[in-house]
Design goal:
Elements (H helix, E strand, L loop, with lengths): L2 H30 L5 H4 L3 H4 L7 E11 L3 H10 L7 H9 L2 E6 L5 H4 L24 E8 L5 E18 L2 E20 L5 E21 L2 E12 L5 E5 L4 E6 L7 H6 L8 E9 L15 E3 L10
Parallel strand pairs: 4-11
Antiparallel strand pairs: 1-3, 1-10, 2-9, 4-5, 5-6, 6-7, 6-8, 9-10
Amino acid sequence: MRGAPSQVVCASLCACALAGCRFAFIADEGWNGPPPALADLSPAPSATRKPAPKTLPLEIIFARIDDNDRAWHDALWNLADEQAFDHALRRRLAANGLRVGVLAGTLPPDLAARLEPPFPANEPGDRAAMPGERPAVMRRLLTLLPGRDTEVIAASGLDELILLQHDGDEVRGETYRDATTYFALKAWPAADGRIRIDLVPTVKHGPIERSWVGEEGAFRLETGQKRQPLEHLSLTTTMPQGSTLLVAATGDASSMAGDAFFRDTGPSLRTRRLLAIRPSGRPADPRFTSASAARFDGAEPPASAAN
């Protein structure tokens, strides 16, 4: 029985000796040998370093068309490919007074000229838009980050907006106060140089409020008006370089989305606006491009719009 404690002590010493040998082996590698490279102590670069996101340059154009000027309007849409969107979506949009299509390639000069902003007059009879006058064309170049929301304002400062929505077999109406209609725009680059574009018609309305918004696993306090996205009228398309997305109103004047987003307000105005979105270059690294505001007001000309 007396030998038992000594056997336990011996076993413990043996364990410590073995452990000490193991610790000494590791310490010798760390102190006596060459120091490990930094790359050996850190995860692989692909796991920690992500390539900088590429920015997406898009040209946003609003062109005004008089209701009596049907020739240019019809000639433009005759060149647009409306079959780029599925039949069910086109039916929903048409029932709500909207029309979409994609233009490929270069437009004829007479049509392309109507999508160019006005320039100062140099010829007799020509003139630029006067102060307070609504210009025929407004253009803005946006530089966007992939997947980030951008507001493309269609109409703002609407004291009262009566909006009828045709959804399936029923028509419902809503009245919005202090309303702004805009398109929530998102864009992503494709590997072949094309750009995917998502557009959701949305209405902001009511007083400015504060609310908590969840985003990327966190909450942030946001100040603004209530938002009503018209999800059933949202559209997605992937556009190659050199193409143009067209969105416009169709049909007679009504209280549908087409007029809410594109018809000018006022007792004597009989003009509508047409929205054209086109990629203006391949995606670029944001470190080598100048940042641009991620909001474009198509209802009023922005101060920095290219004219």
